[in-house]
Amino acid sequence: MILKNNLKEVRQKKGLTQEELGTNVGVSRQTIISIERYRYKPSLELAMKIAEKLNVKIEKLFFFE
Amino acid sequence: MALSKKEISILIEIVFSIVFAFIFLPYFYENQDNNLILMDDLIGKIIEILIFTVIYFSVAYSLLEFVFKKKETKDERDDMINSKSYKLGYLLYEFSLFIFIGYICSKFQNKELLNLTGNQELYNGFNLTDVGIVFLILMLLAFTSIVKSLYQFYLYRTV
User: Fold this and answer.
1) Interface-testing mutation among B70, B76, B79, B152, with chain A (most A C-beta atoms within 10 A)
2) Residues of B in contact with A28 (CB under 8 A)
3) Closest alpha carbon to A36 in B146, B159, B22
4) What CATH superfamily classification does A3-64 receive?
5) How high is the ipTM of this complex?
């Protein structure tokens, strides 16, 4: 099982750039890029912050495949 | 290949370690047969190293700040990359120290054996002075620092 996410789709739907989302949740743009490319698995705290900022449930954003 | 501010600051550290190894390590290598108190201008060399280090990092980081005016956020990904790379550097240094201690022990043991055989020429060839030890420790530090920074750079590019 691989932890995947649809962060890129949700972020684009909300009209946010990687830079803006990163600034809103207190991380760098590179970190958002790494999460979107499945290179980096965020901590629970960061995942919850992102989900809250994008106004979606965390299980809709991050899921196992 | 576009590099971020963090990646460039790692490259600055790598370049410093390489320059240090090429400029200052030969001085300790050439004086391996001496004792620290008998070395030519040791205090001068230490001052030279300190001045070089301060100037190098001041100029390099000032240029970096000038080029990348925006302050970069330090987050959990940076912490993860740093902990991984420092762990590797620490393990490597620890492993090298074990080899180094083994090397010193074997050298002293061999020296005693040579003393027993009465071969004065070989006996005199087995010298390990305090400068020799300082040289080996500095070499280990430079080596582990370069490996650690290269791994850190690799992680920044791939994670």
Assistant:
1) B76
2) 72-75, 77-78
3) B159
4) lambda repressor-like DNA-binding domains (1.10.260.40)
5) 0.89
